[in-house]
Amino acid sequence: AMEKSYKSMFLLLVAISCALAKDAGKKDTKETTAKPKLPQTLSRGWGDQLIWTQTYEEALFRAKHSQKPLMIIHHLEDCPHSQALKKVFAEHKDIQKLAEKFVLLNLVYETTDKNLAPDGQYVPRVLFIDPSLTVRADITGRYSNRLYAYEPSDISLLYSNMQKALKLLKTEL
């Protein structure tokens, strides 16, 4: 177990040094005058311009009080399927725009809330929770054996499911 934590620390350091090098090379563009950005650790690459919550508890609190739906992405850094989905998600302009209407959380660990694993603890999986704090088990992907899984080729389905989560909100509240 010790070996594994050393390894992840090392990966973290590598990631931090890459990020620093990248920022150093940036010219002062008009981006710097935009609203101050939080450190982008919470996005984990799913959308650095978006506001991500830090914990499940914080996400639930925000969803309830802002009356926005919550989108939770379970993923793992060393899972190729998670990485592939993350890449298309982050590069999909419409999804990134629509995501601003959600409370957002991405998790690389499982919570103790069994409602977040209606059909198992696999990654990547994406679940929507409405402001009444109900998991929308009815918003699913295309795979019957992993209802909340999305492949990169399913990105337009994920987009329409995001739209569905917002639409349900309007009709029910």
From TrEMBL:
Molecular functions per Gene Ontology: dystroglycan binding
Subcellular compartments: Endoplasmic reticulum; Secreted
Keyword Amino-acid biosynthesis listed: no
Pfam families hit by this protein: Thioredoxin_7
GO cellular component, one term: extracellular region
Keyword Cell membrane: no
The organism's place on the tree of life at top rank: Eukaryota
Full protein name: AGR2 protein
Keyword vocabulary terms for this entry: Endoplasmic reticulum, Secreted, Signal
Record-linked InterPro entries: AGR/TXD, Thioredoxin-like_sf
Major place of residence: endoplasmic reticulum
Signal peptide from the UniProt entry: 1-21
Gene name of the record: Agr2
Family as reported in the entry's similarity comment: Belongs to the AGR family.
CDD domains: AGR
